[in-house]
Design brief:
Residues 45-54 have a biased composition (Polar residues). Its cofactor is Zn(2+). GO terms for molecular function: hydrolase activity, acting on ester bonds; metal ion binding. Keywords: Hydrolase, Metal-binding, Zinc. This is Succinylglutamate desuccinylase/aspartoacylase family protein. This protein has 283 residues and is of the alpha/beta class. The chain has one domain (3-11, 48-264): Zn peptidases (Aminopeptidase). It is 30% helix and 15% strand. The protein contains 8 helices and 8 strands. An 8-stranded mixed β-sheet has the order 1-2-4-3-5-8-6-7, sandwiched between helices. The chain is globular, with a radius of gyration of 17 Å. The two termini are 33 Å apart.
Length: 283
C-alpha cells in the first residue's frame, strides 16, 4: 500500500510532523497528500448513538456504524487517559466511518471526567488498570466499558493512547509502538502494520520515530486489551504514539492511520474521512 492509499483510507490531510517550525511549513506546503476518495465504503452520520454509563457523571457517547453487508465487528476506544488528547481525537476521527461490511463501534471519550480535567486518571484512579483478566472490572466505569465489549462481542479491539517518549529509548515510555494481544495472527498483523506506518506515514527525516511492534499482551496486567486477550481470546491492539517532538494533530493522525490499517486486516475496511472535526468537546 502506498502513502496516497493509506492516507486516503485514514482520512488525513497529510499533516506531517517536523523538528522545527520551518520544516513544518515546508512539509505542509509541499502538496503531499490526496483528496478524499468517494464511493463505498461510505462516511457520514453514525448508524446510531448510545450512551455509556447513562445517568452518571461518566456518561459518554458510543457511536455504532453498521454496513449494509454482514461482516466482523470492531471496537475502537480512545480517551482511557484524560491527558492523552491524540487518543480521543483519533477515535473521534473514526466515529462516523462506515465499513464496507460489518460494524464499527467507537467509544472516543471513555474517561470523560478525566478528559474534562485534563488528567491521566479520573474517579477511581487509572482506568486502564481496572480490567483484570479472569475477574470483574474494578470500578463502575470499567464495568460499563466491559459490558459494552461483551454486548458488542467484537472480533477485534483497538485502544488508542499517547506516550511521553519513545519505546526502547526513553525510560518507561512506550511511544511509537503497536502492542498486540497474544492471540492468533495478531502479533503478525501488528508487525505488518508497523511496516506500513514506517513506510507510508513516518517521515524519512524522523528515523527515531519509526514504530515498533511491542510485546504481546496475554492477560497478565489489568488493562483492557490484556483482558480482551485473556478472557475473550480475541485479537486486540494497544497503539501508542509519542509527544516527543511531535504535535498533537500529527499524533492523532498516526493513531487514526494505525487503527484504519489494523481494522482493515481484520476485514473491517473503513470509508475515507468526510472531513469532520476531531476537536469538538472538552479537551
Amino acid at each position: 500500500m502506498n502513502r496516497r492509499t493509506l492516507l486516503q483510507r485514514a482520512g488525513t490531510a497529510a499533516v506531517l510532523p517536523s523538528l522545527a517550525s520551518t520544516v513544518t511549513r515546508l512539509v505542509r506546503g509541499s502538496g503531499q497528500g490526496s483528496p478524499l476518495a468517494g464511493g463505498d465504503p461510505r462516511s457520514g452520520d453514525p448508524s446510531s448513538t448510545t450512551t455509556l454509563a447513562s445517568g452518571t457523571e461518566h456518561a459518554t457517547p458510543v457511536y455504532v456504524n453498521d454496513a449494509e453487508a454482514d461482516g466482523p465487528t470492531a471496537l475502537v476506544v480512545g480517551g482511557m487517559h484524560g491527558d492523552e488528547r491524540p487518543g480521543y481525537l483519533a477515535a473521534e476521527r473514526l466515529r462516523s466511518r462506515v465499513p464496507a461490511a460489518g460494524t464499527l463501534v467507537v467509544l472516543p471519550r471513555a474517561n470523560r471526567v478525566a478528559i474534562e480535567r485534563g488528567t491521566r486518571a479520573g474517579e477511581g484512579g487509572d482506568l486502564n488498570r481496572q480490567f483484570p483478566a479472569g475477574s470483574s472490572p474494578e470500578t463502575g466505569l470499567a464495568d460499563e466499558i466491559w459490558d459494552l465489549v461483551e454486548r458488542r462481542d467484537p472480533d477485534v479491539v483497538v485502544d488508542l493512547h499517547r506516550s511521553l517518549g519513545i519505546y526502547g529509548r526513553h525510560h518507561a515510555s512506550v511511544g511509537q509502538a503497536v502492542f498486540p494481544a497474544d492471540v492468533g495472527e495478531a502479533p503478525t498483523v501488528a508487525a505488518d502494520v508497523v511496516d506500513v506506518l514506517n513506510d507510508d506515514a513516518v517521515p524519512w527525516y524522523m528515523p527515531l520515530h519509526e514504530f515498533e511492534r511491542g510485546r504481546s499482551l496475554s492477560g497478565d496486567r489489568p488493562m483492557l486489551v490484556h483482558k480482551v486477550a485473556g478472557d475473550l481470546e480475541r485479537p486486540g491492539y494497544l497503539v501508542e504514539t509519542t509527544q516527543f517532538l511531535v504535535d498533537t494533530s500529527t499524533q492523532a493522525e498516526w493513531l487514526a492511520l494505525a487503527a484504519t490499517a489494523l481494522l482493515e486486516r481484520h476485514g473491517v475496511e473503513l470509508a475515507p474521512d468526510d472531513g469532520a472535526s476531531t476537536t469538538g468537546g472538552p479537551a
